[in-house]
Amino acid sequence: MFALVESGSITKMLSGNRGITIGDLQYPKEIFTLWSKAEREAIGIYEVEMNTSKRKDEEWYINTNVTYTFGSGKVTGSYGDSTAKKHADTLWTSQDKTDGKIPDGKDVGDVAVEGLKTKLIRTVKAQAAEELKNTDWYVVRKADASTAVPSTITTHRAAVRTKCAEMETAIINAADTPALKTLYTYTTDGEGVQSRPLGELPVLEA
Q1: Fewer CB within 10 Å: C terminus or N terminus of the chain?
Q2: Mind spelling out the 3-state secondary structure of the chain?
């Protein structure tokens, strides 16, 4: 990305994929790829240098829009302070009811906006259900034909449910959004094995 600087101020942001007219002069898009940095800056076009020091993982945080500034002979794009996404659900309140904001079918205390915990738990449940689905046919066969379910399958299905419950509890007990992020952050041990505090659902070996 580039910026046009005129009289010391940014007047236009440029994508670099089309030509530009400055004053009475027209320049082709090739100036963004074929011209040198010094040549572009001589006509007021600066490549944007991004400062991402305040930008955080968008899975867990809401980043601000980028602010562009010109100073010390360069254009910088910077993020402001990020805001952690809400980890808990936001509920409809009595004030919301007084203000007529609660939609039909909802009432005070119902969920207005889901927090990260609710979304993450729903994902864990879905992943566990998907893993169990792979062996559901054993259960169906037993119901239809009274064929016993192999012990390895029974053990695996129990382990999936147990681990799912443990993961849900860990998510529920997380104090805030940074704590949730930590649960999902992988680290590598001295033997090169990656793991995360939340752990993984058991997967049946083929």
Answers
A1: C
A2: CEEEEECCEEEEEECCCCCEEECCEEECCCHHHHCCHHHHHHCCEEEEEEECCCCCCCCCEECCCCEEEEECCEEEEECCCCEECCCCCEECCHHHHHCCCCCCCCCCCCEEECCHHHHHHHHHHHHHHHHHHCCHHHHHHHHHHCCCCCHHHHHHHHHHHHHHHHHHHHHHHCCCHHHHHHHCCCEECCCCCEECCCCCCCCCCC
Q: Could you tell me the two tokens for 90?
A: 């936001």
Residue with tokens 């309140």: 93
Between CA 78 and CA 4 the distance in angstroms is: 17
Identify the pLDDT of residue 205.
Answer: 82
Task: Render pLDDT for 159-179 as a digit per residue (tens, 0 to 9).
Answer: 999 999 999 999 999 999 999
Nearest alpha-carbon partner for 76 in 54, 56, 46: 46
